[in-house]
Amino acid sequence: MPITFIRSLRRATPLKEVAGVVGRRTFAAGGAKKKSSKGGASGDGPKASLLTKEVKSTTVFGANILKEGQDPKILPDSEYSDWLWHLLDKRPPLSELRRKDITTLPFDELKRFVKLDNRARIKENNSLKAKN
């Protein structure tokens, strides 16, 4: 693909012209901004929000991924699925799972125990085999 593109450029325009256009330095329009002197108002400070507190509390800003559309509204808790509220629940670490009896663990915790135990054994084997 790149070779055919270069060949098509050779036919259309001389290679020196293409290299000249690509290799030119350009500068941004508008020029450089001057920094303020000591004691003056700084432009780096926090900007005042143009949104009211009421709008902030009812809308999720930045969640719209479409060019045309609106940010989603915050719904009451009853409108969301039950699984959503358990996403941030703390899950027990491997050390705590090792202290429990494996035969009485629920399936989810047993699955987590096997995964974490395998990961720990792999790390230990890798550290033993590593060249120091």
UniProtKB/TrEMBL annotation:
Q: Where is this region: Disordered?
A: 29-49
The answer to keyword Transit peptide applying to this record is: yes
Reading the lineage from the top rank, the first entry is Eukaryota
Its Gene Ontology cellular component terms are:
mitochondrion; ribonucleoprotein complex; ribosome
Instruction: Provide the primary localization.
Output: mitochondrion
**Keyword Ribosomal protein attached:** yes
Cellular compartment(s):
Mitochondrion
What keywords tag this UniProt record?
A: Mitochondrion, Ribonucleoprotein, Ribosomal protein, Transit peptide
- Pfam families tied to this protein: Ribosomal_L37
Q: Which family does it belong to?
A: Belongs to the mitochondrion-specific ribosomal protein mL54 family.
Provide the protein name. Large ribosomal subunit protein mL54
